[in-house]
Amino acid sequence: MGLIDSVQRKLAEQMQEQVIELVRSREWRAARNMSDVLLAYIATSGGSATLEDVRRNTGYDSRSQVDAYLNSPHLRELLAPSGVPPTSALSWESCSAEVDHIMGHDVMKSVKNLVADLLDYMPVLLYQGQWDAECGVGSNDAWIHTLQWHGHGGFTAARRE
């Protein structure tokens, strides 16, 4: 994407190797923290307001819109978990700091095998933003094409439009 120059790229690649080593060592929290450092370095060095869409010169703003939608009375009623009244004090929050503190380490664990199992039972839509430098098309293609499942041949042979 050309966000950083060759010198910055070498440093980013060194940080990336540290992340990979921490994942291999199953040091999940440290891997997540180092990954956050790496992403912040790329964003800062590249001058991007957000890695979620590198074309933007302002931060990503859809979270507040999604939060408002998911907290709307009608949707709360439709999606209320069993035993939780739709009028409860619980509310949807995108990127909750509390949830991230508790579950953030889990982000670094692969669920690739679970995706392959899921694909054997139902259609799946995996989203990746075309201009997303954090989890974009290239990085997702790399692991998706290694999945082994009943539709793999058709998927890899399908013409992109």
TrEMBL record:
Give the GO molecular function terms: serine-type carboxypeptidase activity
Q: By its UniProt entry, which Gene3D superfamilies does this protein fall under? A: alpha/beta hydrolase
Q: Which GO terms describe its biological process?
A: proteolysis
**Known InterPro entries for this protein?**
AB_hydrolase_fold, Peptidase_S10
- Cited Pfam families: Peptidase_S10
Q: Which protein family is named in the record?
A: Belongs to the peptidase S10 family.
Q: Which named protein is this? A: Uncharacterized protein
Q: Which organism is it from?
A: Volvox reticuliferus
